[in-house]
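Weekend entry, working from home. Most of the wet-lab plans are on hold until the incubator is repaired, so I used the time to fold the two sequences that have been sitting in the queue since the last round of cloning. Logging both here for the record. First:
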Amino acid sequence: MALNRIKSHGPGHVAIDDVNIGNGPSSDVISDGRVRVQFHDNPQALATWCDRFQGSFAGELPGVGHLEPSKPRRTNSIAFLPDVEKPTCGPRLNIAIHIVGSRGDVQPFIPIAQILMKPPHGHRIRICTHPVFKDFVEAQGVEFFSIRGDPEALMAYMVKNPGLIPSRESFKGGEVGKRRREMAEIINGAWRSCIEAGDGMGEGVTAANVQCAEDLFIADVIIANPPSMAHIHCAEKLSIPLHMVFTMPWSPTKAFPHPLAAMSYGDADARVANYLSFMMTELLTWQGQVWRKTIRDVDR
C-alpha cells in the first residue's frame, strides 16, 4: 500500500507491505508495531539532501532570495533602558493544554498547570482533554475543557494496533473508520478549547451568550502532547506559541531514529537515516489536511 503524502518530482516514496515504489527508502510494519525503514540506495544523495534541507531553515540555500526575511520579534525597548524599572511579572496569559491519551498522560500536566497558575506567574490554565477526566482535573483546582473522545476505546485500539499502520483486521472490522471519526471530533474539540467559554461538555458557547467577560477564553499559548494532533494547526490559526511536551522523543535528530521506526541502514549514513526516519513516520501519521481546510474560515 503506497503512501504518497507529498508531491515529489523524483524517487523517494514510502511503501508499506514490501511494495517498493521508486528507488527511495521503503518501509513495512513488523510484529512489534514499529515501521521497518530501509535506506537502500544513493546514501550520498540522501546526505546532500538532508544538509540542504536543514540549511534552508537558516537561509543557506541558493535561490531563496525571493523569500521574505523573517520578521524580528517585537520588543519594548523602553523596558531595557537603565533608568526604567522592569515589571515584577509578565502579563496574565490564557494557556490551553491539549492532552489525548490515558490518565497517565494527563497526570504530568497537572503540576505544570498548578505552577503556572500560582504567583509569580498567575496565568489562567485550561486542561483540554477527554470528558472522563473532568472530575480528576477539577479536583486539582485546574480549569477543564472537554475535547470529547473515549480514552478506553482509544487505548483498546492501540493495543490491537501498536504501530503506525492499522492491522488488516481493524480495517475489515470498521475500527479504523470509527477511530478516524473520533479523532475528527477530538481535533474539532481542541480547536473549540482555544476559543470558547465554558467546559465543552455541552453545546458550544458563543461569545454573545457569555454573561461575564472574565469567562471568555482565547488562548495565548498552547501546550500539548503530540497525539492531540490539532495543536500546530490551532497555534498557526491563532498565531500563538506552541510548546510540545511528551515522554517520547518527537523532534527530528541525527542522534537516534524515531522510536516507532525499526531501522535498516544499508549503505546510508546512520545519522542522516536517523534524521529522515522522523520525517517518514510523520508522513504516515499525517491526518490534518482536510481539517485545515475547514479551520481557515472558522469563526471569522
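Second, folded right after the first finished:
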Amino acid sequence: MAQLDQSVIQIHSILAAAKRHFLYSDELNKRVLGALNQDALVHSNQLEPDADHTKTLKRLKEAWEYGVEYFQDHVNIDLILKLAHIVEPKNHGTFRTSMGFTKDRDGSHVCFTNPMKISRDLGQLLFSLEERHEDPIVQAAQLHLYMGIIHPLSDGNGRTSRLLQNLLLHHYGVPPAIIRSTDRATYLNHIEDAHRGFKERNDGTTSPFENYSYPELRFLQYIVDRVMEATVKLSDEIISQRRYNLNVEVKGCNRNIYSLRNAIRDSLCCRGIPPQIRSSPKDCQMIVVTSASEEEMIGIIEKYKMRNTALVRYVVTETTNIK
C-alpha cells in the first residue's frame, strides 16, 4: 500500500498548504468544498443511466443534507438505512431480502452477499473500519468498495455507497471523490475486478482488510486519486483568490451600494465559487475576495452601471499582494 499511503500524505500536505495561504478562511474553504460536493452528487447521479435524473438527484441532495446534519464520528447501520431510504424510497428502510446478482462485462453472473448474511457482514465491515484506525481517506474508499461488494440494498447501492464515502470525507474536511459520469466504464470495471479479487482471496472468515488482492488495491487507489483531483481543485481555488477594494460614489443613500454588492455577488456566483464581500455603506466601500480577474470585476460593474443610474463612479483596486 506504499503508493496509496504516499497519495494520502500528499493530499494532507496540499490541504495544509492551502490553509496557510494568507487569503484562506474557513468560510472560503466551506464554500469551495460545498461546490465540490454538489458536483460529486451530480456525477454520482449521472453514473446511473436508467435513473430519472431530476427526481433521483433531488433525493440524493436531500440525503446529503440529512447526512451532513446527523453524521457523527462513524458510519452505523441506522445511518445507512436512513440514507438508503431517502436515496431510494423502495428500500423501505430495510436491507435486501432476496438474492442479488449482476452480470460482469464477460456476461458471467456475479452474486452479492446472501441476504441472511448482510447484517453480519456489514456489521463486521463497520467494526473493522473503526478498529483499524486507518486514515479517513482510506476508510472512505474501503467503505465504498466493500459496501458495494456486500450490496445490502434492493436498489441505490452505488449512490448510497458513494454518498457515505463522501460524507465520511466531508466530516474530516477532505474534498470528495468525484467520479465523473464520463469515467463510468472505468469505474465499473474497477469495482467488478475488485469484487472478483475479493471473492478469490476471501473465504468469509477473514477481515476484508487482510491480504488485499491487486484489483482491490487498484480500486482504492482509483478513489484516492479522485480525492486528490478534488483536493488540487480546492487548493487552486484558494490560491487563485484575489482581493479588491471597491470605492464607489452613489446618488442618494449610501446604502444603495448593497444593490451593487448583490449584483456583483450574483454574477460571480453564476461563474463558480461565491465570493466573499464585506460592505461598508458609511465609507461607500467594498472588499471583494474572488478568483475573478480585475477585467471581469470591471465588466460586472460596468454592466450594472448601464442599468442603474444611482452609481456615479467607482474605482477598483487590487490589493491581493498587500498583506
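Plan for Monday: verify the second prediction. Strands lie at 101-103, 109-111, 242-250, 276-280, 285-290, 311-318.
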